[in-house]
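Reminder: ligand-aware prediction takes two inputs, not one.
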Amino acid sequence: MRTVSDYFGSLVFDDRVMRAKLPSDVYASLKRTIDEGASLDTHVADAVATAMRDWAVEHGATHFTHWFQPLTGVTAEKHDSFIAPSPDGGVIMEFSGKELIQGEPDASSFPSGGLRATFEARGYTAWDPTSYAFIKGHTLCIPTAFCSYSGEALDKKTPLLRSMQALNKQALRVLKLFGNEDVKCVRPCVGPEQEYFLIDKAMYEKRKDLVFCGRTLFGAKPPKGQELDDHYFGAIKPRVEAYMEDLNTELWKLGILAKTEHNEVAPSQHELAPIFSVANIATDHNQLTMEIMQKVASRHGLVCLLAEKPFAGVNGSGKHNNWSLATDTGVNLFKPGETPYENAQFLLFLCAAVQAVDNYQDLLRLSVATAGNDHRLGANEAPPAVISIFLGDELTAVLDAIETDTPYSGTEKTVLKLGVHVLPKFTRDTTDRNRTSPFAFTGNKFEFRMVGSSDSIACANIMLNAAMAETLKEFADRLEGVSDFESALHDLIKETIKAHKRIIFNGNGYDDAWIKEATEKRGLLNLRTTPDALATVLEKKNVEMLTSLKIFSEAEIRSRYEICLENYCKTVNIEGLTMVDMVRKEILPAVEAYLGDLSGTVAAKTAAVPGLACKYEKDLISKLSKLADEISDAASSLDTTLIRLKAIPDVTDAAYVIRDVVLQKMAELRVVCDEAESITADKYWPFPTYGDLLFGV
Ligand code: ADP
Ligand code: MG
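Here is what comes back for the chain with magnesium ion:
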């Protein structure tokens, strides 16, 4: 029997393959490019391309593609075959270094948010050698960055790579101050836990809302939901187990470290977590994972729903973005150290994260802002829209002690010497997990829990890296060249705690009282909706930070703002239109059919027994008939608003109309439809109900 280690990474042109297939000088040169970002000469590129082609053809590939992540949120590929005619009438398989390094897809059909108006339509893709090439189907996929001809990033990967570079530079400066001369590189590590729903494909196909929008827009609450807590970590059903097995095999072949799988809180909800990797690889892998999850589901007669809130009334899905910083020497900078000196370094990085999150709450919030995620955040199942940090009682007490220059009297096992020059030594936090915090310290990493399940993790990590880089830059500027490093460090940590402790909150984030305290007492931001959040990216402090670190140009920021808003508008518009369509073509006809039969029954019964009251039928007819009128009115009202919306030229204005009017009307329409569903006989209802969908696998 083949074991996992036999086929793990078998479809990846990874280090093992490179070492085996490349001439040693080429391998060494490529390694330098991968590890140190050295540029690649054409001789090396040609040799790599040849080896890659031979390997891919051996594995059944006929085509190659530059695989990239445009601002649509999904990945894009355009396949070219390797074939070239040979003089004898046959073909040879060709692939050059130039084709490996650079591609030229037409950029005009991808969103560019205005960048295209000022620049050429042509775009180019550039190989990212730090992310291994892989085979999908019959195609060799080469991970690439996607830019306009003038160098504007048209994708999510380029700014992510830039943010990693900025973070590396500033973190190295800080590490030098602590005497870490051997560290060459600091990289963000990310482990995204992915939640999803699995439902039956035949049922899915009967629901236009699922097919068009990926989430249900109607659905009365079934008698049973998640209230018994019997799904979370429960035994996995055979059909789901077969799916997970198949999925794991596919992911492992692609070198994706799929590790943990379990049932989640809601019925039909599950989670998959990989082992963490460097941020750009984790991002590539998460995009691939989402794609393969859906592909494999189809083979099993299932559909994998990645929408943030596919069902009202039960939990939605998110993605926990576990994030830490690691040196090439193997040190996790968020791991408390052994000596007070190491702990001073840890505390400085921790404080940098606290300051970064406080100063750039808005950027973190907007990095996860989508129409879908707005339904999830703050709904008592996911963190609120207010950003705060959970540090745990022990670490918070240490920070308090430093801030107030008082001795720390934590748990007994804690050894603590606190003087002006000596920072405390303490043991790892032992407090319980806080699952309600948007940004929780979990011992040696931060878990950013606001990311939506269908979203790319690129944006969240760009903003995390950027905010952290900016803060470390400020710290390094202040500490470099001081005569008494320890005092300066102590003062800096103390001041940082004082200035930013408002962002630390260890209590229940789902509590309404917290939102009140956060906004009224602490002055934290509560950006409830996507349009509210997105607007903040244009604020001066944010534009200055992102451009000075060279993560985005001003034009790139504006383009992303427009694309995200447009996306929000389009998504909700499609949902609104789908609702109107389902109401007029399915729901109302179904209700009418039932009403017709009920009325027929009344007529038949009174004909049989003249004077019969027929109270039950008549009550139901009145109630349902009134609901049908209300449904019809609500649908017309929504429809009119959507028509009006189309005429609004400015995307920001349109987004506000959606936020304030359209979503409200959609909610009103849903209420009356769900009420009608709950009193209509099953056989009349035109599509599978929540009960069917949630308990149908
Ligand atoms: P949890 O802490 O949520 O109970 P795990 O400890 O298993 O679960 O980790 C969840 C995710 O965090 C996994 O994807 C894991 O690989 C990732 N992770 C663990 N350590 C780190 C780290 N130092 N940096 C980034 N991600 C990490
Ligand atoms: Mg977790």
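The domain at 4-155 is CATH 3.10.20.70 (Ubiquitin-like (UB roll)). Confidence is low (pLDDT under 50) at residues 411-422. We will return to this case in the review session.
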